[in-house]
Design a protein that fits this description.
7-stranded antiparallel β-sheet, about 20% helix, alpha+beta, 2 helices, Immunity protein Imm1, two-stranded antiparallel ribbon, about 130 residues, DddI
Amino acid sequence: MGDIRIRSWHGQKADSEVVEGASESQLRDAIDALDNKVTTEVTVDQADGSYLSIGGGAGRYHVSYGNSEDEYFTLQDESRSGGEEKLVTGGQLGVFDAASVVGKSLAVRAAATFLESGRLDDSLTWKES
């Protein structure tokens, strides 16, 4: 089990809420709170230093993984290609490849697997970044 951090931004200032030993239900609630405006980031942290960050909200999410060995991966939706999408993640507007903006079901599935196991869901598509 991991901890989750929920970040809401008010200008340059971020408020963080930490839920230690979070349940899948608490994780789902945190992802539901993402609004692509103020509350724009949920991070699942594991004891080994690895993390999964979910940004955006309102049905559109950018999900990225990193670890202490400088390995980084981004969740991909293979049904989407071409073009770019704008999302607010970590309090900042970003432009992302359309394939790296996923729907809620993929974001929740990736996050729930990582929360429970500390690993990426191998049945999903991840792109090294």
